[in-house]
Write a structure and sequence with these properties.
Residues 20-191 form the DUF83 domain. InterPro entries: Cas4_PREFRAN, Dna2/Cas4_DUF83, PDDEXK-like_dom_sf. There is one protein chain. The protein has 196 residues and is α/β, with parallel strands linked by helices. The chain has one domain: Lambda Exonuclease, Chain A (Alpha-Beta Complex), CATH 3.90.320.10. The protein contains 8 helices and 8 strands. It has helices at residues 3-7, 19-26, 28-37, 48-56, 58-61, 110-125, 153-168, 179-183, and strands at residues 16-17, 71-73, 76-79, 84-87, 90-92, 97-102, 132-137, 142-146. The chain has a 5-stranded mixed beta sheet with strand order 2-5-6-7-8, with helices on one face. A hairpin with a 4-residue loop joins strand 5 (90-92) and strand 6 (97-102). The protein starts with a helix and ends in a 13-residue tail after the last helix.
Length: 196
């Protein structure tokens, strides 16, 4: 299924949601199932980790994390170069630092980095100077600096390849389920290829 089909006709042209970068790496089929639910009540399909993650972003999404004027929070962005759109978590204007908050970071996955890259490129296209990117683990108060994409050509290439794969993905193409991922997938009951 082409990307435009599973993004939906009412979606901004054919832009990919930034959150899809991590979801696609977890399982390319998950984006399709996510779109099936559309704007339905998330309690119908989300599990405890998703609910807790969403709750940890509440202050950002409502722009109540801080009242300081030198901090962008929950700002909508898009990146023409890569065809991406979504929201940033926090951008500290004075230090030129982009931060993505996670409830608890156990591992830094490629998909996490790709979401941060997307925010980085979107902010730069909007004219912001971004000199540092990082993750912040809220539960243990730890910061994890990440190399800028131009300083890590291998990860930048993986980022670009992931976008290409999303744009060319066909739901009917051959798919090999991963038992570990299927076990933790919130869409497992819908998936005819799930191993659970």
């Amino acid at each position: 299924m082409p990307a435009l089909d599973f993004l939906g006709a009412d979606y901004m042209e054919d832009y990919i949601q930034i959150s899809f970068l991590n979801d696609f790496i977890f399982c390319p089929r998950s984006i399709y199932f996510h779109q099936l639910f559309g704007r339905r009540d998330t309690r119908l399909y989300q599990d405890r980790p998703q609910v807790l993650g969403k709750a940890s972003h509440k202050a950002i999404d409502s722009r109540k994390y801080t009242s300081r004027r030198n901090v962008l929070q929950g700002t909508e962005i898009f990146c023409r170069k890569y065809g991406l759109c979504g929201k940033i978590d926090i951008y500290y204007i004075d230090s030129h630092t982009l931060a993505e908050r996670k409830r608890k970071i156990k591992n830094i996955y490629d998909g996490y980095c790709f979401q941060l890259y997307a925010q980085y490129f979107g902010l730069r296209e909007m004219g912001y100077l971004v000199q540092k990117i990082q993750f912040y683990s809220m539960q243990d108060n730890k910061t994890y600096p990440i190399e800028l994409p131009e300083n890590n050509p291998e990860m930048l290439k993986k980022f670009e390849n992931t976008i290409d794969k999303i744009n060319s993905y066909d739901l009917s193409e051959s798919f090999t389920p991963n038992p570990k991922k299927c076990k933790n997938c919130i869409y497992q009951p819908l998936c005819d290829l799930s191993l659970c």
